[in-house]
């Protein structure tokens, strides 16, 4: 027996004769394998199924979340709090850690199930020959060497080499991305490097048979099939962290260094002063709670969840919250064509009939639409063409747009409906007397009918096929008025018309007819012999049309500085024409040329390439990888299985809602309306959410810096025994005061010029030098105001009982935080410009909470605050107002400095590093 090991995956079966393939798989055309041979091969190769990708357990994910640096710092604070009997502080901090871990684990548990989805796509039953008997078996029991029967409507159960075929066509869009069904035949291909989409004597797992019948010998099963290789690529692609995750991790490290350096300094100073261990630890945890942004993970999660809800309302569903922000950083979109930029519905766009041009409108398989012509021309009689459209095809199209059969023939049926002809009724009225079925070997179809022509019944032959093939069998052509002239008189015009349609990326079909009165018996006996001496009727140009919103979406993306490229399995000429219609940009390349380029050459050529045709799943994966290595944040859109690995590799994989389950599981976002324009809306929302996160971090970091400085100065100069505020005061500020300014930031509307700026540089962290200086400056401002208010407040300061100075510091810090949130919600724009009423309503709540914290008894006992007089409250308000005044003045100076008389507002904003952040 000839071995059929896994190396078969790399065998060019399409370059071998069918009998040689049967021999290589040690099988038999007539009897197939024996049951014993099949069992032995199944033990060797395994079942014909896609292996599942094991996922991490919930506990493993939770443990990984707990190891996050931010959470580890909070755990340390909670432990020390218990040691020094600060139990309320320990409980609150521990609850925060649990909340962070639960939220993070919940998101991670939505991990990809792409390979599982691939496994579910297996065909349940197949017709296979075993021991000379045709049996119906489960697809999972197939092995290399099995002889399988296929017919229209079947899903191919494994990869195989065709042994016989009759008018076979398969729909391979799920694998190659090509819209039109692919003709198949058994002829051996000479070359050994034929692209996947051109392997016309092979059929592939999980593609569908749209026409004809065939017998195949199974060459690969399970993970060795083309689908299995996609699954392997999918498993090999490790999920990457989003830009925001990477930036927050970087920021957390910076904060950790600042926090623990400050804690160490305070502890050292306490020891030098001879303070007790309890006091020193209290100082340490007070400093730690002040310096660690305890609410940062929770608040960022809340803001991302808010963004996710906005996206869902816009019909874009994200699986992980951090992907919301990734959208905003998108700098390149690699879009599949079929079903993404196009409607995945073959449609006739142009008609060349009796020597004249006509335009066909209408979308997809909707039967409404018009056929328009040049003014002044006579209304044509489309009867002969309508016969060909209806009778020379087998597809059916319902009034709701559902099709059965070949999509290209469905487009012809829809064109007939636009002419005013009902295909089912026409077929019942004029049944076929004889036919020559379509076959890829001769590339035409002919049917014979008794038809009504010019008021009488005639026996007519109708032919449909490729223009070159049909013209080669014609001797005449019709001109307006159905006047026949010798073909040579108009051959040049017909050739030019075919070329014009092809250059537009249209699939061209030609129609011809022949009158055969009195030859019914001869035609029925040998119909092929009558496919000659035809009269040319016309040509139609068919295309998978662009989605109406796709052109505007591409234009918006370009204005936003986002490169859009189309990557498809279609031929390069078709892809290039569609790319030009979309306005993608210059440069088109085919799969073989792409594969011949080195990574360095491709990287250098990418700025000049915007259309990629005849690509493989590996090509899509490679393109995403090269673009990412070049610094781009890549979004990849797609709806077919062949897109899945690239979607998982991309920074933001965007699946279409009507696409395969595999693709939806591999993607990080699903567009429920299949609308490419929705992706641009999602990017706009993503940018807005990132702007809000930056505003929040600016606000949060300014507050943290003010607290760090306050505690450091209090410790160094022994103010209030080194404790400016109690730990619970700080936690109260984090949870009950800053929450509301954050809400104001979240609800602030997006700036109108958001999509007129280039994408932010993902390599520039949130904690860049310019931003860090701004945070520190705003923090110093808040610290200075709070310290001044505390030092100038009447009364003694003590950490063992409530005091007016500490309460004043608490109130000024609270009111200052509230007002800071109002003005910091926008940068460099003023925070005092409309809309502002809604923000003031929200900010009134923490003002009331601050009053309660100072004036209500049980909160006084918990926080160690004391009541203030009316004059003291006014003083606190006066101190607090200094903060928004200074911040607004600084932003005004910055706006003036960056303003340029000849520079558009959007450009000026884009130059501003603070706006970019």
Automatic annotation (TrEMBL):
It comes from the Bacteria. The chain crosses the membrane at residues 72-103, 254-272, 278-300, 704-725, 731-750, 771-792, 804-824, 836-858, 870-887. It is a multi-pass membrane protein. It is found in: Cell membrane. Keywords: ATP-binding, Membrane, Nucleotide-binding, Translocase, Transmembrane, Transmembrane helix. It catalyses: ATP + H2O = ADP + phosphate + H(+). Its main location: membrane. Residues 12-86 form the Cation-transporting P-type ATPase N-terminal domain. It holds the Pfam family Hydrolase_3. The keyword Transmembrane applies. PANTHER family: P-TYPE ATPASE (PTHR43294:SF20), SODIUM/POTASSIUM-TRANSPORTING ATPASE SUBUNIT ALPHA (PTHR43294). Belongs to the cation transport ATPase (P-type) (TC 3.A.3) family. Type IIA subfamily. This is Cation-transporting P-type ATPase. It comes from Rhodococcus pseudokoreensis.
